[in-house]
Amino acid sequence: MGGLTKEYVIKRIGMFLLTVWLGTTVIFIIPRLVPGDPVQAMIGRMMTEGVDVENSAQIIKAWRERFGLDQPIHIQYIRYLYNSATFNTGYALAFFPSRVDDMVARAIPWTLGLLSVATLISFILGNIVGALLAWRGTPRLAKMLLPLSLTFTSIPAFMLGILLLYAFAFKLDWLPYAGAYQRGLTPGWNWEFVLSVIKHAALPALAVVLVRMGFWALGMRGMMITTDGEDYMILAEAKGLRPWRIFWRYGIRNAILPQVTALGISLGSLAGGFVIVELIFTYPGMGYLLYRAILNSDYTLIQGIVFYVIVGVSLAVLILDLIYPLIDPRITYQRG
Amino acid sequence: MAVAEQGKTFAFIKKRDSLWLNGKLLFGAFVLLAVVSIEFIGPLFWDTELATVASAPTNMVPIWVEADANLGFKQPDAAHPLGTESNGRDMLALLIVATPRSLRVGLIGAGIGMVVGVILGFSAGFLGGWVDAVIRTISDAVITIPGLAVLIVIASYVPQLEIGSMALIMALFAWPGPTRLLRAQILSMRERGYIQMARLSGASTFDIMFKEMMPNLLPYLAASFTGSISGVIIAAAGLETLGLGPTRIPTLGMTINNALRASAVLRGMWWWWGPPIVMLIVIFVALFFMTIGLDEIANPRLRGIES
Predict the structure, then answer these.
(1) What is the pTM (predicted TM-score) of this model?
(2) How much is the ipTM here?
(3) Which of A139, A202, A328, B30 gives the lowest tally of CB atoms within 10 Å of its CB?
(4) What is the distance in angstroms between the Cα of A194 and the nearest Cα belonging to chain B?
(5) B 127-156 → A contacts, CB under 8 A
């Protein structure tokens, strides 16, 4: 417990704030690099695309209010930062009376639930496979078969998703092809609903698990091989400990630490890639919402979603960073 | 006499065990080369004009498939061996036109990211101090930002993206990987004997960087490069699948987007989304093998434990 020093915590929180600030600033700058008034450009683009701009006056007002577009750019920027810091993401353009945060709040549980479960499964399975691949005690047959689980590593999850959709939803008709639960069911804690949710989540989760597993397995294999050469492994063997115990308590326990760091680093790309997986499965999470926002050129919604995604991922990384010293007590000696 | 013979055997060993003759690397490189050659060989055999809308009959199945008339598919024809999609494009021509574009985005994007990464990585590792602190902090922050999400914002604001600008945008998030890798390698390398030796012998910083360090860093850099080409192509294909990115010229991702919009998956038109996916998978697998091979060259321990 003493692993968390004040200095370390402050440093990590600072890193979190920096990441969120960088991300939101990039989102602020981009629209201003495009020539012309963003609001006019947007309305014009929506008109040409045949989107109904019924409340255009209201929308323009809402936008000018949000960004204070008649103000000089540094005032705009400060206002924008203030709005972001207070999580005031305003109204959605194309879905007008809806607020961005309401729409995000409805979508976020689906993404969070599916993505965290899938990530956890792939992390655990992948690390076990990787460790077994590097371990001397693994049966020969397993060593031949395990690499098969790495087949999908280099394929992005959404492409695997399309293939799975075609095979299991269209050809075999085993699993549903869209949505998060069967239409007509009322969400609640009953078996029918929970079962339906699991059935709908199975394919997108499988796509993520299959793809990410190999990534963890490869990393773990490398780490285990490195650990294998360490003196404490030889000592453990010399002491006559059971191989299984050496494998778990000495090998994996040490090799897993860099993997946790890698988990933090990979969360960003994981979340980004998942956007498209949701689109493939019409899963009603953040990614699908983002796709609908793009289709409708709803820039406030796009910005709002991306803002929340950045905050969410950074927060997850922060939590991981804060847990890290607890699983690796050495970290305080080095940094504290 | 004995010495000469010894020299001979050494030469033989060196040739056989040459560092770069890694099976995985060669296999990957060979496949990738085959894909690259499509750009040059393809147009000689096939009319690429067929990749434009309405240049071919619609919904034609590939040549080896029996068309199901109930689903409204046309019987196969030798003129369109891979079939056609609902907008009247020939799938084979589409592949020939689109594949090189995806590769090019990957190469340029990863290339720019690599150059920036090398410069920043060397600066951080060599100069140390506050330069190192700034570079490390920013690259750590950028690596946690979900790149694809920010790229989506960019691509949705920039109305017409060309291959070049697409690659440039991709490079925005391709540099932190190489930067971190290089920094870590240089920090550990700086303390090794041969670098210390070179420094003591009065070698210039430039010489140390390029004559002493570079040869040892090369496999790491190459592995990072192939890995990041793959990353950029994935990101670009992802954006295109969302309907962003270049729209005038067909790309592999755009083809997938068209297929999804026409719900080709649930209409059973696998020859619409299948070929671009297979093509991308071939590219990814080739790059993956190259990356693993290069990793093994850089870190011989990865070749496995000899038991």
Answers:
(1) 0.82
(2) 0.79
(3) A139
(4) 25
(5) 137-138, 140-154, 156
